[in-house]
Specification:
The protein has one helix and no strands. The chain has 113 residues and is mostly helical. The termini are far apart. Helix content is 98%, strand content 0%.
Length: 113
Amino acid sequence: KRLDHASEARDAVLSEVAAKAKATSARVRTVQETKEAETDAKLAEINRRMESAAGMRDCIIHSKQVKANSRVAKVEAAGEALKTSARREALSRRREIQERLENAAQSREATLS
């Protein structure tokens, strides 16, 4: 009887130890799953922020390109304006010189006649 009683007690203790181990294993698994879920959520947030930062970087680069293109266009327009102004000035000088020559020719003719 003592052997049976000891065997039953041992089986009960082993059963209790196995139950505690199973419960501990379940808690550990739950904690691991929770940590994995938190890690996944953090990684997803980091990826979202990185994509957002990349998008902002692309917008900034585009904005700078637009500004640079605008500056180039202004410089080119200023260059064209200078060319046009120089052309007008040259034509005006040519007209003045032609008028002077004509006036000189007329006064020479008047003097000769």
